[in-house]
Design goal:
heterodimer; A: about 400 residues; alpha+beta; MetI-like fold; 3 domains; four-stranded antiparallel sheet; two-stranded antiparallel ribbon; about 65% helix; about 10% strand; globular; B: about 350 residues; alpha/beta; D-Maltodextrin-Binding Protein, domain 2; 2 domains; three-stranded parallel sheet; 14 strands
Chain lengths: ~400, ~350
């Protein structure tokens, strides 16, 4: 009866109560599972806690972007895994976007051959499970590479072998000054562009902003090399014999084949979906838009840049965000080919050595959630920037 | 109207959830053996094994598991359920194995698992014994010119399995020798073999029994050899969950029975004829003297069934490890009376 009273007289309360109860129920479920896990773990003599993160990890990792060896902590190992996940995701997203755009545009090409090749590419790569593609690139394609002593040489400064791709190492002097000059260049470019926009909007003047920006980006860092003592030398990889038939390269930087295979597989696979998004986006812009743009005297490049792309991007960005998220999450398949990402290093080795399944899996899930939400937020911001601004 | 019906359904659903939460709860940990009761009720022993390691736990083409680790589970099934075939096998990766055990997905883990202090004490597990004494070694190509671990040089790349003590021993070893190395750790043993076989790494390191077993999977086994040095102690044995003392004892004594049976010369073919033996130790093993099974809530023929259906340790070793050519020489896995270190407490 009392509820009925609420129902009729107080719409706000009526709307609020079920929601409150649902939240309460959800909380109870979570608390129930947490307590249950705690009781069961207690019964089995398993302690719960995150203290292990400060303990010495005592295992080594093939490839790390920060200083790491087994004497560092599990927390540091987590960071190594996280950075490796981010690295392969960024490389994957970068190449997937480039390949995706090129293939997407090619599918709309008037050239029959180009359009068909692009179509076959999309159909083949999106219909084979990703894990098989990873195995293909790792076990089949990379295995075809030669042993270090017969490595494929690029002008004797870089070598491609089954053990990895050895590239020269950059050795900087006064790197900080160089970094500052890059930042300065970007600030300058920002002002150049806003000035160009102002000129166009107020006086209808078209400034070659892109060319000027590019020149700035090259010129400012170049000055640091010439006058401010910045210099760059290279350390080249050199073949080293370990025993009668075992060779490796010393010096330089080794790009491990696991990273190459994973990045290749992820970008080739995800690019097919991005290509379809790009094609849909371009086709989604009405023909009338292009004709109208042509009729006010814009040239072909201007039509693409000022009329078609801004509208196509609005269709392309939201589904492409999903693909970026998928790529990041799919990078967790790395464990299959020994690329030391967060799943292999932290949810694999560290979990094994410490036995802290609940803590480690929770941290790993939260990490992926955070990564995904960050990408979503960035893409949503970009999407908003590209959306129609009603005036 | 429709909205308010929806609301009430929602409220009803939510309160149902609340009620459901109020019930349930609690956990295991009673003094009787819950695992034994559950096993009897289910009619099979839930056993965790490897994803395929010849000699230890390996499935044939028709899905039948065999190996000395598998025999531990078969012995438990024979003792508890009267039939060694009543085992449900769950293949587990190195990384999954302990979680599968602590979460109750399996009740016995017989998966060439190294007994270490931290595993025994820290994560809710109990090791019940050792069914294979092993040690970590290195495999290299015969033509590599590497004849000993002392020939390893800076920059060597080593493939291994992730989530094993191997990874840790490898670091200890290379650190102690002051050699910088490239560790490449795969999740599955098959991928380690493939990567090593193709030349991604210069050496493959794991337990020596594992190296011997995996060598049979290489494209050309004769091109590879195992270096003589052993860099670690790897006592491999079955594991149970902590907190069920009765179940722990059943698994421990199922294994001990197999070893003790070999010591007294009791095997699968002569066990039932030894009921009237002169030796009281043999009579206890075949169940014609004493009431040993009662201590676990089992009948008196539990150990006889193990010996008859699974065989003694020597038979198991011969069948799975020696006759398959993996390690024909028993080495430390020989009875203490014959110069090995297999020594179990007396069953009395």
């Amino acid at each position: 009866m009392i509820f009925k009273k609420f129902n009729i007289e107080n719409k706000k309360a009526r709307d609020l109560i079920p929601q409150a109860i649902t939240v309460l129920a959800l909380l109870s479920v979570i608390i129930y599972f947490a307590t249950n896990a705690q009781i069961n773990m207690g019964n089995r003599g398993i302690s719960f806690g995150f203290g292990f993160l400060n303990q010495e990890a005592s295992f080594d990792i093939t490839f790390s972007m920060i200083e790491y060896d087994g004497s560092h902590s599990y927390g540091r190992a987590f960071l190594v895994g996280l950075l490796n996940t981010i690295l392969v995701s960024v490389i994957g997203i970068f190449f997937a976007t480039i390949i995706g755009v090129v293939v997407g545009v090619s599918r709309l090409s008037d050239n029959y051959l180009i359009a068909k090749v692009a179509e076959w590419y999309v159909e083949i790569f999106r219909n084979i499970p990703l894990i098989l593609q990873i195995f293909f690139w790792y076990f089949a394609a990379l295995r075809a590479l030669p042993l270090p002593e017969n490595g494929i040489s690029f002008n004797d400064i870089s070598f491609l072998t089954i053990k990895g791709w050895y590239v020269p190492k950059f050795i900087w002097t006064n790197f900080n000054i160089f970094l500052l000059s890059i930042i300065a260049a970007f600030i300058a470019i920002y002002f150049i562009n806003s000035y160009a926009t102002k000129q166009r909007e107020q006086f209808g003047k078209q400034l070659p902003a892109t060319s000027i920006s590019l020149a700035t980006l090259i010129l400012i860092p170049l000055i640091t090399f010439l006058f401010l003592g910045v210099s760059l030398t290279f350390e080249y990889p050199v073949l080293k014999q370990l025993s009668s038939t075992v060779y490796t390269y010393e010096g330089g930087v080794s790009i491990i084949p696991e990273l190459i295979a994973l990045a290749l597989a992820l970008s080739m696979y995800t690019a097919t979906f991005i290509a379809e998004n790009v094609r849909a986006g371009i086709l989604g812009v009405g023909k009338g838009q292009k004709e109208a743009a042509a009729s006010i005297g814009l040239n072909k490049n201007q039509i693409l840049k000022l009329v078609v792309m801004p509208q196509a991007l609005r269709i392309i960005i939201p589904p492409t965000t999903n693909q970026y998220l998928n790529l990041t999450k799919n990078s967790s398949l790395a464990a299959a080919i020994a690329y030391p990402d967060i799943v292999l290093v932290f949810a694999g080795t560290a979990l094994m050595q410490t036995g802290r399944a609940i803590e480690i899996i929770s941290i790993t899930m939260l990490t992926y959630l955070t990564l995904s939400i960050s990408i979503s937020m960035f893409m949503n911001w970009y999407n908003k920037k590209m959306a129609i601004k009603e005036k | 109207m429709i909205k308010s019906i929806k609301t009430w359904i929602l409220v009803g659903f939510a309160s149902l959830l609340l009620v459901a939460c109020g019930q349930g709860g609690g956990g295991s940990g009673s003094k009787k053996s819950k695992t034994l009761d559950n096993t009897k009720k289910a009619g099979f022993v839930k056993c965790g094994v490897s994803q395929g390691l010849p000699g230890f736990s390996n499935a044939d083409a028709s899905g039948n598991w065999s190996g000395i680790d598998v025999d531990v589970c078969r012995a438990v099934a024979a003792a508890v359920l009267g039939d060694a075939d009543k085992v449900k096998y769950t293949p587990l990766s190195a990384k999954e194995r302990f979680t599968a055990l602590t979460s109750g997905e399996i009740d016995v883990l017989a998966r060439n698992t190294t007994w270490t202090l931290s595993r025994d004490a820290d994560i809710g597990l109990t090791f019940v014994g050792v069914n294979f004494y092993d040690g970590q070694g290195f495999m290299v190509r015969k033509n590599s010119g590497i004849n000993s671990v002392n020939d390893f040089k800076n920059g060597i790349s080593a493939c291994t399995n992730t989530g094993t003590t191997t990874e840790l021993n490898m670091r200890d070893f290379f650190n102690s020798k002051n050699i910088s190395y490239e560790p490449i750790a795969f999740e599955k043993a098959d991928e380690v073999v493939q990567a090593y076989d193709a030349g991604r790494c210069d050496t493959y390191t794991t337990d020596k029994s594992g190296l011997a077993a995996q060598r049979t999977k290489m494209s050309n086994p004769d091109e590879h050899k195992v270096l003589p040095e052993t860099i670690s102690k790897e006592p491999l044995g079955p594991v149970v969950r902590q907190g069920d003392a009765v179940w722990e004892d059943i698994v421990r004594w199922s294994l001990n029975t197999m070893i003790e049976a070999e010591e007294y010369g009791v095997n699968s073919s002569n066990a039932s004829s030894l009921k009237d033996s002169e030796n009281p130790a043999i009579k206890r093993l075949v169940g014609s003297e004493g009431e040993l099974g009662a201590a676990f809530g089992l009948d008196n023929e539990w150990s006889l069934r193990i010996i008859e259906q699974v065989g003694n340790y020597g038979e198991s070793y011969k069948k799975h490890i020696a006759d398959t050519g993996i390690l024909p020489n028993r080495g430390p896995n020989q009875l203490w009376t014959k110069g090995g270190i297999l020594y179990v407490p007396p069953a009395r």
